[in-house]
Design brief:
mainly beta; twelve-stranded antiparallel sheet; 12 strands; 11% helix; globular
Length: 180
């Protein structure tokens, strides 16, 4: 009986991982600008960075601010069964000042929403950009670090009571719109 229960638990975990790892296809309203794989604790999210064709709205951008530094921002979504971008949502912001590109923040908005995101950088957990490449508006890279659950909304949010660091690795490959 114990072996059977263990097999059921193992099989259930495998199906859950399979369901999370295989994203649904976006509807015709959206195009895929790139992909993100985020391993957060024991969960792996396979996400897409969508381009909303109907609204002409990319979910990724690169901007040169005052000609001094470059900011790259992209938003990954899990795709719902109906083919629309859904939660969890992962936002990554990178910035290059005078030296190398670095992580500003990564925020995972899960079922707890905007009022309680998992955050790396930006007063959340620590994170490091361990690889980065930008060539012909295609950006790829990897972040390693820990998320902390925050409570509240900026600028008054703080680390949620009882939260513990959640290890995370985020990898992406995204085609950015032209530099603004």
């Amino acid at each position: 009986m114990i072996r059977f229960a263990s097999a059921v638990v193992a099989l259930s975990a495998w199906f859950c991982t399979l369901a999370i790892a295989e994203p649904h296809t976006l509807t015709e309203r959206y195009e895929t600008m790139g992909t993100i794989e985020a391993r957060v604790g024991d969960t792996t999210y396979s996400m897409v960075v969508p381009y909303d064709v109907a609204r002409n709205r990319p979910h990724a951008e690169q901007k040169a601010i005052m000609g001094t530094f470059l900011t790259i921002n992209f938003l990954g979504h899990v795709v719902a069964q109906d083919g629309t971008p859904d939660r969890p949502i992962l936002q990554v912001t990178l910035q290059k000042r005078e030296g190398e590109m670095s992580l500003v923040s990564a925020e995972l908005l899960d079922d707890l929403g905007y009022g309680a995101p998992l955050v790396m950088g930006g007063d959340g957990g620590r994170g490091e950009l361990v690889s980065f490449e930008l060539e012909d508006s295609v950006v790829s890279g990897k972040i390693e670090g820990t998320f902390l659950r925050l409570d509240g909304y900026p600028p008054n949010r703080s680390v949620a009571v009882g939260t513990t660091p959640v290890p995370a690795t985020i990898e992406w490959d995204v085609t950015l719109p032209p530099l603004q």
